[in-house]
Design brief:
Elements: H1 2-21, E1 23-25, E2 31-33, H2 36-46, H3 61-90, H4 92-108, E3 114-118, H5 122-133, E4 137-142, H6 145-153, E5 162-164, H7 170-175, E6 183-188, H8 193-206, E7 211-215, H9 219-227, E8 232-234, H10 236-249, H11 251-260, E9 281-284, H12 288-299, E10 304-308, H13 311-314, E11 322-323, H14 329-334, E12 342-345, H15 350-363, E13 368-372, H16 379-384, E14 389-391, H17 393-406, H18 408-417, H19 422-436, E15 442-447, H20 454-461, H21 468-471, E16 484-491, E17 494-497, E18 510-515, H22 519-528, H23 530-538, H24 546-555
Parallel strand pairs: 3-4, 3-6, 4-5, 6-7, 7-8, 9-10, 9-12, 10-11, 12-13, 13-14
Antiparallel strand pairs: 1-2, 15-18, 16-17, 16-18
């Protein structure tokens, strides 16, 4: 915009200057020179509405000639300036620059903690929806314009500021709020390992204290990320392989984990799965996913047959390989599918995976089926085959990151639960099932402080004790128990799983709570209101409201 504006400035400056230098005549015929004020005034209204008259006296012919020249020069310069400005305003680069500046100002003005999510593909969109549904603030960077535009039409609970930019560039990360004091974490979930690596490195260099969570499906990239302190690195293939091993070893813990990690509270409770161990397994596809589950199955003592169409690209296991795609009956028969316990359709093509499942079931209807889903759009047809387990990389990553950001104590709880036996997990599953009925359990974290548990802090400050049993009583009928289970207490970096009712509460403790309908609301009444906490602890109300005290004094 500089050139057209400078053109207008030069044209009108010359017009004003020359007008003050041309001699004129007043009413008496005396020569005079127009001063700058009158020259500026005349040229200004001449530029917009010619016809206000000649000032301060009628012009001489020389003045009128210069006015004519100035009028045409002004019109031409205005046409040039307006045309150039209109062209510039319609330019996509200019619009992008304005959008970036607007977003940067909006982010600088944010007054709530937020997370910076890099990438709005399948994983990013699922994660952003999960976080916003939980009431958390998010900022997104997306390099593809059409994906960024999806944010505006997706049914998100809150407005999500989005920057169209390359998250590899430090400038765009800074514009999106990387160094903002309220930025809580950076999440790199693009589909390119090298991009996620660059984001993690840049984030740690520009903001060393910030939490960085990255997606990676290469062990080399994971090792590189770990070398400079990336907080959490999530490999969807290793994560699923670990989950499959859990289903073999501790089925109830696998079921518990699937309940607690679910992002949809409206779904019905899953049924437990029991992968068979009696016969061999067949894996179709020996890529990154195939290798991860192959290693886990071998560790479980299973015999495994691998089917791969291009072993020169993927490599092959020591025990050998069956060449083919796995969609043809003869390839599956060569892998002895009729005698197999399970089939893992694990290629990066959803159509081929579905074809494998259909063909294999015709040969062996009793197969335990695990199918890999690569695209969310195919959910309906993946569901139609009724697989025993579905491996969806984007969902696995989104759920795990959502838990790490939203309820980090749950991640710690599951890590400690791996040290428990199957009977412990089955008992907890039964308790949660009785608590929530057929709906997914809801989770929250509560810190015993003035903000979340004012009444408890007041009681503790008076030297009294509060037990878990007190908090879990119903504030309407103290003999009844609330529909909630305290899964874990964190006290001074010590973790206690499933604490008993006589466990004493201390200021600063953090509680991981699982509840059914209405459980959280009544639990918070106990935590926040002095009179309610007194009732559930002692059966009497020791504190009353202002109106009650007024009426009580009058009655005396």
């Amino acid at each position: 915009m500089r050139q057209p504006l400078m053109t207008l400035l030069v044209v009108y400056s010359i017009a004003i200057l020359v007008l003050t230098l041309i001699p004129g005549q007043d009413e008496s015929g005396n020569v005079y020179y127009m001063d700058f004020f009158h020259a500026i005034y005349f040229v200004s209204f001449m530029a917009t509405t010619i016809g206000f008259g000649e000032i301060p006296f009628e012009f001489t012919d020389a003045q009128r000639v210069w006015v004519i020249v100035s009028m045409y020069a002004g019109v031409i310069s205005w046409l040039y300036a307006i045309g150039t400005i209109f062209t510039l305003v319609q330019d996509k680069t200019f619009q992008h620059a304005l959008s970036e500046n607007k977003l940067a100002r909006k982010i600088r003005g944010m007054r709530e903690p937020f997370y910076l999510v890099c990438g709005y593909g399948e994983t990013g969109s699922a994660l952003v929806k999960g976080l916003t549904d939980g009431g958390q603030r998010v900022v997104v960077i997306e390099i593809e314009e059409y994906r960024r535009n999806l944010i505006r039409i997706d049914n998100l609970r809150d407005f999500v500021p989005s920057l169209h930019g390359d998250a590899q560039k430090p400038k765009h990360l800074q514009e999106a709020g990387l160094q903002h004091s309220l930025c809580q974490a950076v999440v790199a979930v693009t589909n390119v390992n090298e991009v996620n690596l660059k984001i993690a490195l840049t984030s740690k260099l520009l903001h060393p204290q910030i939490k960085v969570i990255c997606r990676a499906d290469s062990h080399d990239v994971e090792n590189n990320m770990e070398s400079f302190g990336t907080d959490h690195i999530i490999d969807p293939y290793d994560t699923f392989a670990t989950s499959l091993a859990t289903a073999f070893q501790v089925p109830c813990l696998h079921l518990l984990q699937s309940w607690l990690f679910s992002a949809n509270d409206e779904l019905a409770l899953d049924e437990p799965v029991y992968p068979p161990k009696q016969k061999h397994w067949v894996i179709c596809g020996y890529g990154r996913f195939g290798k991860a589950v192959y290693e886990r199955l071998i560790k479980e003592g299973m015999e495994v047959v691998v089917i791969e169409a291009d072993p020169s690209a993927t490599g092959e296991p020591v025990e050998g390989i069956v060449y083919g795609r796995g969609t043809e009956a003869n390839t599956l028969l060569e892998a002895n599918i009729e005698e197999a316990s399970g089939l893992i359709a694990g290629t990066d093509n959803d159509a081929n995976n579905l074809s494998m499942v259909v063909t294999a079931r015709e040969l062996n209807p009793d197969l335990f089926i695990i199918v890999r889903q690569n695209h969310s759009d195919n959910s309906s047809i993946i569901d139609s085959v009724n697989a025993d387990m579905v491996m969806h990389p984007s969902k696995i990553i989104a759920d795990k990151i959502r838990v790490l950001l939203g309820t980090p104590m749950l991640y710690q709880f599951v890590s400690l639960a791996y040290y428990q036996d199957n009977d412990w997990a089955c008992e907890l599953v039964s308790r949660i099932s009785a608590l929530v009925g057929n709906q997914m359990p809801k989770l929250t974290e509560i810190t015993i402080n003035n903000h979340e548990a004012r009444a408890v802090v007041d009681v503790l400050g008076n030297g009294e004790t509060v037990k878990l049993a007190d908090l879990q009583r119903d504030p309407w009928k103290r003999r009844d128990c609330l529909k909630c289970i305290i899964l874990m207490i964190e006290c001074h970096n010590d973790f206690l799983l499933l604490p008993g009712p006589d466990t004493k509460i201390n200021q600063g403790d953090r509680l991981l709570v699982c509840a059914g309908d209405g459980g959280f609301t009544r639990l918070r009444w106990n935590l926040q209101h002095d009179n309610i906490l007194s009732y559930v602890r002692k059966g009497t109300v020791t504190k009353h409201g202002w109106l009650w005290e007024k009426l009580n004094r009058k009655s005396k």
